[in-house]
Amino acid sequence: MMLHFAALDWLVVGLYLAVLAGLSWHFNRVETRSTGDYFLAGRSVPAWLAAVSVLATNQSAATFLGAPDYGYRADFTYLGAVLGAVLAAFFVAHVLIPRFYALRVSTVYELLETRFDARAMRWAGGMYLIGRVLSGGARVYLAAIAIAMVGFNAIDARSIILAAAVLMFASLIFTLRGGLRSVIWNDFVQFIVYAGAAIAVLVFLRLAIPLDTPALIDALRNAPDGTNKLRLFDFSTDPAKPFTVLAAVTGLFLLNTASSGLDQDTTQRLLASRDAKTGARSLILSALGSVPVIAIFVAIGLMLHIFYDRPDLMGADYALSENFSGEKITVFVNYILTQLPPGLRGMVTIGVVAAAVSTVTSALNSMSSVLVSDFYRPWREARGEVEDRHFVHAGRWGMGLVALAMFATAVLSYYWQQHSDMPLLEFVLSVMVFAYAGLLGVYGVAIFTRRGTTGSVIAALLTGFATVFLLQPFTFGPPGLAFPYQLCIGTAAAALVAALPRGKIPA
């Protein structure tokens, strides 16, 4: 039986909203007047704060809901696949970030203007915008599930639309005036909220399992289906598995390289540091910090396996309904709504919201910075000089456009995922692959070779997107090809097209 929110739950939610309102007032009381402050926080963000901000942005509602779902279904191999993220962080820190700082760019796509011309920069920026709208909207959809279930007692299309609209509006109001500085401090608060909620659930769930630690470990090592749910690394070469060691050092390495070094959502925080070394250090810290965070969420899934699937060990049979109002939900959401006591239920619910808000506010500011810096500003300055403050106002209008696009994608994701058997975590990560394939191919050629032209860059960006699309099971792709390998194929195709003509690096 589903439990309703109690007074204590609403009190927790009210305190959370009060903290957000206080932060919003603090950062919005003084209007930001320059684009350097608005989009890069005056390049004064310390390494530890940038690291927390990157970590909070990357560990979205997809991790909050998806990682426990993966742990329940499988094992610890998703944590083992973080190897790809750590390797990518060191690569980006020592190869890409120094190049970006040397050029003193506001967006990573300005590097292509130096290497080719403004058209190449705008096409890369446009591909980023498409990819971030897709992935950001998918993450909003995941958070909207939890909000709809709590607020509207349903997860039908109407409830998802209303929940997504509330989330987008709240995120837009928070970041509209304060810019990146308010986003980064918001990330810090949201990280404390959702990490604290996860730890509280893990402790509560562990106390509910009547086994000592050795017996619990033995039960996880010897699941009824014969699997070892404590397995950390999967050394198989099955192309249908997305979190093997092979996938980690190939497709997941590429995915995290794109996310950390070519995605303005992350690189904006690194460029906001005072120098390249500080930015690099913050990226590495965030990658290493993601290991214990992901471990906590996957461990929750393992505990849920014992709680729901091992009545012989629990001494009771707890009903697990995978449906709510006729719609499929994750095992973690089921546990939140049926087993958590008042107060903790409210805390975990705002944890889901906090993870989503952190991602949304980051996406709004980063996408707006690309719209203004790479598209609107060159067009406007070509028609006469204008004060820098004008582009701050343009950035706010850009956020509004981005918010509408992400909201539309969240609604689309509802229908998209309804027709897919893909787990939530894989669904969100696979959406990111579409835009990243072209960007990875283009930047690989631009940075490590002397080949390529503006025309081949544009063709490569389109080739990467089209290749990943054609590899989907609903088009012409082979069934069971996991998204890391789709990214590898798409990146290779894009790189080949980008490198076809002989180019010349400007002197």
From TrEMBL:
Where is the secretion signal located?
none
Tell me yes or no: is Mitochondrion among this UniProt entry's keywords: no
GO terms for biological process?
sodium ion transport
* Keyword tags: Cell membrane, Ion transport, Membrane, Sodium, Sodium transport, Transmembrane, Transmembrane helix, Transport
Check the record and name the Pfam families matching this protein: SSF
Q: In the UniProt record, which is one GO cellular component term?
A: plasma membrane
Cell compartment(s), UniProt: Cell membrane
The organism's place on the tree of life at top rank: Bacteria
What GO MF terms are annotated? symporter activity
Residue ranges crossing the lipid bilayer per the database entry: 6-26, 38-56, 76-97, 129-151, 157-176, 188-209, 243-262, 283-308, 350-376, 397-416, 428-448, 455-476, 482-500
Q: What membrane topology does this protein have?
A: Multi-pass membrane protein
Protein family according to the UniProt entry: Belongs to the sodium:solute symporter (SSF) (TC 2.A.21) family.
Name of the protein in its database record:
Sodium:solute symporter
Q: What is the species of this protein?
A: Sphingomonas suaedae
